[in-house]
Amino acid sequence: MSGNEIEISGLGKVFGQGASAFRALSDINLTIGTGEFFTLLGPSGCGKTTLLRTIAGFEAPSSGSLRINGEEVAAKGPNARPVNTVFQNYALFPHMSVAQNIGFGLKMLGKPKSEIDATVAEMLRLVRMEAMKDRKPSEISGGQQQRVALARALAPRPRVLLLDEPLSALDLKLRKEMQSELKRLQSETGITFVFVTHDQEEALTMSDRIAVMSAGRILQLGTPHEIYHAPADRFVADFIGDTNFLTVPVAASDGQAATVTLPGGTQAAARLPEGMIPVTGQEVTAVVRPEQATLMPAGQGEMQATVGTSTFFGTDTHIHLTLSDGQGFILRRQNATDMASPEPGQTVGIGLGAGTLRILKD
Amino acid sequence: MAKSYDVRRLPGFGVIAVATFVLLYLPILVLVVFSFNAGPSQSEWDGFSLQWYYAAFANEQVQDVSIRSLWLAAVAASVATALAVPAALATTRVSRFPGQTMIYALINQPLMVPEIVTGIALLIVVAWVKVSTGYTGMGYLVAAHTAFCIPFAYLPIRARLETLDPTLETAASDLYASPLQAFRYITLPLLVPGIAAGFMLGFVISLDTVVITEFVKSAGQDTLPTYMLGQLRRVITPEMNAIATLFLALSLLFVTAFFLITRKRG
Prior knowledge:
The structure holds 2 protein chains of 2 kinds. By secondary structure, chain A is of the alpha+beta class. Chain A folds into 2 domains: about 5-235, 3-Layer(aba) Sandwich (Rossmann fold); about 240-360, CATH 2.40.50.140. Helices cover about 25% and strands about 35% of the residues of chain A. Chain A has helices spanning about 50-55, 100-110, 115-125, 140-155, 170-190, 200-205, 225-230, 235-240; strands at about 5-15, 20-35, 35-40, 65-70, 70, 85, 160-165, 190-195, 210-215, 215-220, 245-255, 255-260, 265-270, 285-290, 295, 305-310, 315-325, 330-335, 345-350, 360. In chain A, the strands form 4 sheets. Chain A has a 6-stranded mixed beta sheet, sandwiched between helices. In chain A, helix 2 (about 100-110) crosses helix 3 (about 115-125). Chain A starts with a strand and ends with a strand. Chain B is an all-alpha fold. Chain B has a single domain (about 60-265), classed as MetI-like fold (Orthogonal Bundle). Chain B is globular and about 70 Å long. The mean pLDDT of chain B is about 90. At the A-B interface, strand 6 and helix 2 of A face helix 8 and helix 9 of B.
């Protein structure tokens, strides 16, 4: 990974005019490194697809600048940008064979036939579709169409490959397969991937970095680890994984860390987000991931709770608890053999290890 | 479980259905049967013969008007189709604009205005142009037929375009195709069934038209239908039945081709 492939600054996109205008993207600032697997993650309508389409050139930005490999492309059409797209519905050309689909980009670039044939053969091998090269898109399965769409977009050797929720139409097993397939293709080709998804698990497992988006803005930009363990705000914490939100008063704060009073009266240290200095007595939102809390015998741990229902998930069990002040709390305990779920109504302790409690910016 | 509602079980359904089919096909059946009559009668069967077909084929006037009809239909349907393609693109491949429904209505005018009204209007305008230019050629018929063929060519092309995923054109442009290349390599090949269907429909409609041709044609510009109408005013021989039967066969051929093309690939 060296250098910046994509530099976006102050990018905005407004659809419509006047009273019916809709601001789809606001002040997007983003740098994507060469060879990076970068994911735009967010719920539907957050602007992630609009941002991808703007990078592809299908939408012209209303403001700001967009550079690809150092060159300003905001005013250029999609056919003048060194990027290719894998579409959500694949958009394979139905009247062309698999091989013709893959070779289309090179043909439009005016490459000689010998070069096209060689690249098509290479791409067919890369996505393991050699046997299907003369079939029409309607004669192959959804997963195979997905591979052809990938090969077609990779064949012209773009600097950036854009992927618009390419796995959402596949069933779970095939999706898992294609996830590792995508990672393999990316490491084999070294091409920068910009991947759009609303699936947080997909984003966490595949990406080098993630931009979490909501309402046309980037809320947080970071590695999967940072996004998961240090969510910038309530939206990110809620969207990525499961989280317990606790409303607690601050007992003391020095600008680096704070001490909060947990339900039941125990005081515990909590990490503060950058730039937040709460005053003593202020109510803040503290978060704990369900798997970071441990179940303890009654009387032990930082908090006491009453057991509600338990749900068995195979690898782990989700235990729904009610804290002494009435707030709900979910605890995820990894399963081992002969481990009994706690009885409903039983009183238990909750242990919070050092560093698990984190205060969110409001 | 309740039985699903079945219109075929309603009392009188069978009678109405049979009556409708009799009304639709009996007259045509009579016409076809008597085209093979050995005698000159339209009501008395004198045995099987192909003589009226021989007579029709030998009739130079029939040859003359048939060729004119086919030529006119081919030219009018071709021009109408060529005009309908950009019209269909301009009304489907753009974001909705104010007045779009109005444009549809304007393009489809010949489907709504009574033919006799168009005929009279054309008669007046054509008369002016004839007087001021002195031109009396086939141009008037070509123009008139082209105009009313446009909606018939336009509708199947537009229907085809509406089923085409616009993402395909986006994908083509993403793969470095210019707008013209995207049209040439993606849109046009996928549009061929619609274009062929539009042409067929326009061709049959032009072939069929009596009213507008009757008002627009100059002397010696009879088409097959106007010639048949003229002959019927004098004497009805089974030769007319033979011509009508052949005409019917030709129309059926085109309409069948139209259905086969539009059914293919949904």
